[in-house]
Specification:
- The model has no long low-confidence stretch (mean pLDDT 87).
- It contains five helices and no strands.
- It has 137 residues and is mainly α.
- The termini are far apart.
Length: 137
């Protein structure tokens, strides 16, 4: 079984890479796609912040699931339909972000810190993709 956090990181890397290949140059469209990617980043980062407090980020799984389901229709024209479906698959397989800490003991500070760091890395990749897209011409 593939680690869901690795899927999130992989999806972020792929998204960042695909944006450089996109042929869509309409400013309004780039802004909309950037906003969508920033929302994915925010959802992941918000969950990581709640985990840092030792709490469970209720609602994050559903937000990620809905963002993933919408992905092909939301950015498929921008990154390519097949690529959008691949990203959707990765996000759906990793959308249970509320459960990332369930298997870790509260005493496992190292494991918890590593999980949060991976979530923040994934969030950072999606955020970087959004920033890059906003700044590109």
């Amino acid at each position: 079984m593939i680690d869901p956090l690795s899927l999130l990181i992989d999806a972020g890397k792929i998204t960042l890479d695909l944006l450089g290949k996109s042929q869509v140059r309409k400013d309004a469209r780039r802004k909309d796609v950037a906003e969508y990617l920033a929302e994915i980043a925010k959802t992941i980062q918000d969950a990581a912040n709640v985990f840092k407090k030792g709490e469970v980020p209720h609602g994050s799984c559903e937000t990620m699931r809905l963002l993933a389901l919408a992905l092909p229709n939301t950015i498929g024209d921008f990154v390519g339909k097949n690529e959008a479906l691949d990203l959707q698959d990765k996000l759906l397989r990793a959308h249970n972000i509320e459960t990332f800490m369930y298997d870790l003991s509260k005493k496992d500070k190292k494991g918890r810190a590593e999980t949060i760091a991976k979530m923040e890395q994934a969030s950072g990749l999606f955020n970087a993709a959004a920033i890059t897209l906003r700044a590109s011409r």
